[in-house]
Amino acid sequence: MKITKLNDSSIANILDQLLKRSPSSYHQFEKSVQEIIDQVREGGDSALFDYTARFDGILLDASSVLVSQEEIEEAYRKVDPALLDVIRKSIANIRAFHEKQRQKSWFDADHPGVILGQRVTALERVGVYVPGGRAAYPSSVLMNVIPARVAGVPDIVMTTPPDMEGKVYAPTLVAAKEAGVSRIYKLGGAQAVAALAFGTETIPKVDKIVGPGNIYVALAKKAVFGYVSIDSIAGPSEVMALVDQSCNPRYVAADLLSQAEHDPMASAILVTDDERVAKEVIRWEDYFTEKLARREIIRKSLEDYGYVLLAENMDQAIACVNAIAPEHLEIVTRDPWESLTRIQNAGAIFLGSYSSEPIGDYLAGPNHVLPTNGTARFFSALSVDDFIKKSSVISYSKEALRGVYQDVARFAEAEGLTGHANSVRVRFEEDEENVELT
């Protein structure tokens, strides 16, 4: 990584580079993804299991695709009891945080004869996609399932690809069971998304699909949006550290690398107004990289999407943060709380030297499913709100409607909708006729 002086041009170049990682930029895969979706939609289980055999090398059928109770029990035997204890601590923290997000139905009667309100209800069935292979993250199971449970979703279906032996990663199964998943299917890829979106003879259709995945999964979610709801089209992970001379460069370097190790397309960005700090962070990054297991992934990530940005002052640095709108933002300044008041765009914000980003990934409680690729300008973290729907409730008595129906009719006629006007007027025609007769 080299130091780049911050200016409008450098920010624009970074934004262009980061956006190239977006699933929306991979048009060359859309045709093949759509073909998979169409085949599963039309062919059901037959197409679903054919694609699983072709892509995953596993022969499944309706009797073997569902994870059995015996498989779950086997997973518990494989998982270290210390890890199980951590998973349960994490669940408690995630549940406690998301309980604070719950909304209640409400009704008001501010005017005689009028009751207005909002009814909050949970989605009936949600599908959670969980990656396998290199990106097998039990923590993501918790982050997607627990908000749905807190919201009151009664049926949570999970799909995750098995290994070459037809087994699902044991910690993933244990996390799913502990979090409260209803059923787990050994399916992955675009074909799993299609099955959840449209249903097959074996896989039930869901109302919403959430969870991360590779480019094929992301494009499949994009393609089925509208038939079902989705959480977002997530891109590779990213972290940005806003620091000044008060920071510990060793800590900052370690935090940046913690995201770079996710994926060769992950992004780690440092922005500071102190050149000495910038150089020290680079030195520590080089030092740590040599010692870390995923060093090749880290090197590729830093080479393509790693940046060290030198600002003239903190005002310029903060403006850069808001322009990039990072998924994860660490603020390590003299007064991080003051800096926080000036941040408008970020998915999750970590304050101070000891709020390392991984604490948010695993244990703190706030959701780690976050907007990427600059979408933190208009999207939020996954929450209980993603698993509910809100219905407006309107109740007028005859006397309450009498006082306003002419206004409604006038508005409707201004829009040329005489049927709307008639709909309210017809309720008082008899009264008007009676008045004329007397």
TrEMBL record:
Substrate binds at S237, Q259, H262, H328, D361, E415, H420. It holds the Pfam family Histidinol_dh. The active site is at E327 (proton acceptor), H328 (proton acceptor). Its EC number is 1.1.1.23. Its cofactor is Zn(2+). Pathway: Amino-acid biosynthesis; L-histidine biosynthesis; L-histidine from 5-phospho-alpha-D-ribose 1-diphosphate: step 9/9. It comes from the Bacteria. It catalyses: L-histidinol + 2 NAD(+) + H2O = L-histidine + 2 NADH + 3 H(+). GO terms for cellular component: cytosol. Binds 1 zinc ion per subunit. Zn(2+) binds at Q259, H262, D361, H420. NAD(+) binds at Y129, Q191, N214. One of its GO terms (biological process) is L-histidine biosynthetic process. Belongs to the histidinol dehydrogenase family. NCBIfam families: hisD (TIGR00069). Catalyzes the sequential NAD-dependent oxidations of L-histidinol to L-histidinaldehyde and then to L-histidine. This is Histidinol dehydrogenase. The gene is hisD.
